[in-house]
Structures are given as structure tokens and as C-alpha cells.
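We store amino acids, C-alpha cells; thus:
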Amino acid sequence: MRIFRFATVVQILLLATHWFVYETWTILRAAPDPPGVSWLAIVFGVLSFTFLTASLLAWRYANVAVRIYYTIASVWLGFFSYFFFASCLAWIVFGLSRLLAPAWPSSLILYACFGAAVAAGLYGVINSALVRVRRVPVKLPNLPESWRGRVAALVTDTHLGHVRGVHFAKRLVAKLTRLAPDLILIGGDLYDGTAVDARRLAEPLRNLSAPLGSYFITGNHEEFHHRAQYIEAVENVGVRVLNNEKVVLDGLQLVGVHDRDSAHDPEHLRAILQNAKLDPRAPSILLAHEPNLLGIAADEKIDLQLSGHTHGGQYFPFTWFTSRIYGPFVYGLNRLGNLLVYTSYGAGTWGPPLRVGTSPEIVLFSFE
């Protein structure tokens, strides 16, 4: 019943915003419509239902038809969000232009705003598909000499599912193979959380190769259902799953904590880190999906936390809202006391496959 109420509220909002964009277009275009029902009104009405219906189908089915429909609906939602902002801007500019003499034509204002929206959407789709490599030098206290010059790769938030699937995973693995890091860390949200063949999507990871191994923790999207299916799929291809535990890699301590256990319960996270029995004389890295509860990691003498989750907001203006939530830890390398924190934009996308103001990335940490 709660899901039904939530879906109803979401659909009402989508209908209302689609109506607003349609009305903005028809009024400011200043061109009379032919008599009868407008075909554009019908198109907007139909499109307003696409993302919710596609999402409901994606939770249950993983066939080709659903994947195509979900991808189209996601792309439309991304473009539509810019059409909505363009509509708001058009009315603001239209109102201000009434104060000028002569006033600007409303159709010119409309086409300029919507043209910018289309350009932003196209850029966002293209940009989201181009995974960059970001290189970050780090200095950890008490780092063994054997680690100097070594490189660890961080990959988070691939969101494998209906929009990005096996081919995307193969491209990431091929890029990692060319980069040849000494250690590979997968920081959660490997999966999008929709209905998928988890084993099939994980199969490209079988080709990961790093001298010190590949390690995985779950993100919040793996917690949407039973995370065991994802853990089993990842383990099946030879990637080591860190189940709230520590491993020692040639003198460096690596702790991996699943999202459900690290993001929201400070005492539980503290207990996990204390049970890991960290050696304060050796450097330590915490792999945790969300950059939350950083004070706990700092208290327990973690040297470096690696996270993702935020996507940096993914595309403007949501980038602004996300930065208000996470502050300086929304992206990049930052410090809290003696704790270094790196938050990645992630390699994939969630929802609309757009990135404006952020870039998908694989992060290479070189130890100095």
C-alpha cells in the first residue's frame, strides 16, 4: 500500500510538470494550435507515464523489451528535467522582458531556452558514456617501502542493469587491464538494483587481473533486494568480497564494510572497525560505499577512506543540491583531521544516463 501511495504521488508530480512544460510551449510559442485535441498534448501525456511504468517493469523483468523501454524512459526523464528548467527560465525571462522596450518576442525566448535544454541533454548523454581516468597521488603514514610507486584502482557506482550492461562492464575491464593497477577496489553499486541476471553481468569481472587482487563491497543499490545474489555472483568470478573484514596486503591494512553496515549506524561501524583490530603502526584503508560517519573512521585511526555513492549529483542543478548534503566530501580528496577521504563520481549513472557538471571516472591512487 505504501508503494502504491508513493507511486501515485510520483505520477501526479510527473503529470503536473509535463502539463507545465506543455503549457509553456504552447503559450510562449504564440502560434495557434489547430482545432481539436493537440497531438503534442497526447505525446506529453503518454511520456509522463513512461519512467514510472518502466521502473516498475524493471524491478521484475530483465528482457530486451524492458531494457529498451527503460533506457528510452530514462533518457527522456533526463531531457525532460532540462525542459522543465527551461520552462521556468523562459517565464522568468519573459516577465523581465516585459519591462523592456521593445519587449523580446516570446517565441524567441522559448526557442532559446529549449534549445539550450536540448544541447545540455545531448552533452549529458555523451559525457556520461566517456569514462575518464583520474590519477590521485596519496601519502599514507608508515607506508612500507614496497608500496611506494604502487597503484590502486577504485571503481564505484557502475550501476550495471538495464541501461548499462555487459558491454559496459567489458569496456571497464578492458580499460583496467590497460592501466594495470596493483590493486583493484570495487566500492559498491556495481549493480543498479533492478531485475537482472547477476551472474551474467559479473562475468566480465573474471578477466580482472591485479597482483594484489580485486576486492568488492556492496553499495545501497545491492541492498534493494537480498544482497546475497550479488555477493555470490561476484565471488563466482574470482573477486574477493570483503564481508566487514580486514585483509593485510604486504603491510597495508584494507578494511571493507558493506553499505548496510557502514552508512547509518555509528556504533555498528565502530564495532566492525574495532573487531578488525587495526595495527596503528601500519597504514589502513577503509572501503565504504557512502562518505558517511567519517568521524567514526577518524576516531578508529583509519588513514584513507574510499567511497562513491554521491555521483557528485550527476547533472546540474542536482550537483548543487548534493554538494549541500555532503559538503566538501561530495567529491574528490579531502581531509577530516588525520583521515583522508576520497569520494568518486563513479563510473556509471543512476536513472537518467546524463552527466553535466560531473564526469564518470576510474580513479588511480599512486602511493608516495
Q: What stands out?
A: The CA atoms of residues 263 and 292 lie 6 Å apart. The two ends are 55 Å apart (CA to CA). The mean pLDDT is 95.
